[in-house]
Amino acid sequence: DPQRALSTGPLRLALMPGSRRSEVRSLLPRMIAAAHALRRQVEVEPVLIQAPSLSAEFLAPSLADYAATAGKPLDVVPEDRFQAIADSHLVLCASGTATLEVGLLGTPMLVLYRLGLWSYLLARLLVRLPHFSLVNLVLGRSAVPELLQRETEPENVAAEALALLQSPARLTAMRQD
């Protein structure tokens, strides 16, 4: 129960920055900084869900940055990802097929998507969709919060996460959706 976790124990926060190097370079530092920002409000126990396509060597600099700031290593889950996701109170998830996995497991999530400026501008011209996360696209409505471009700033992600975790009604509705 996330409400209980906010008052009696650590918030288990899964970080799923994606499977492509470019999206991980863009999102993982923001997710880590959001976890640090959340830690100023509640006790947080983040875990990185490692996509099979990413090597430990590729992730090493981000893990070192986390350890230097947090004073302890960031736990990494290279296998049994579904159990780690199911055991989490909240997932910070890159937009992609992972959102469907998280949704099927019933774990609340915030979906993050960030493109380079030119790619974003081109996409805005060419793509007309009401949502960008697969969960919301499949449902045809907004069931999970989507954070796009500047909305992925760490302080904003942390504020959105905290607001979601403090709303039992939103969490229940998200799980049901």
Topology:
Blueprint: H1 2-8, E1 11-16, H2 21-39, E2 44-49, H3 56-70, E3 75-77, H4 81-86, E4 90-94, H5 97-105, E5 109-113, H6 117-126, H7 134-139, E6 146-148, H8 154-165, H9 168-176
Parallel strand pairs: 1-2, 1-4, 2-3, 4-5, 5-6
Helix pairs in contact: 2-3, 2-8
What is the ordering of alpha helices and beta strands?
HEHEHEHEHEHHEHH
- Can you give the mean pLDDT? 84
Number of strands: 6
Radius of gyration: 15 Å
Explained architecture:
The protein is α/β, with parallel strands linked by helices and about 180 residues long. Helix content is about 55%, strand content about 15%. The protein has a six-stranded parallel β-sheet with strand order 3-2-1-4-5-6, with helices on both faces. Strand 4, helix 5 and strand 5 form a beta-alpha-beta unit. Helix 2 runs parallel beside helix 3 and helix 2 packs across helix 8. It is globular and about 40 Å long. The protein starts with a helix and ends with a helix. The N terminus is likely disordered.
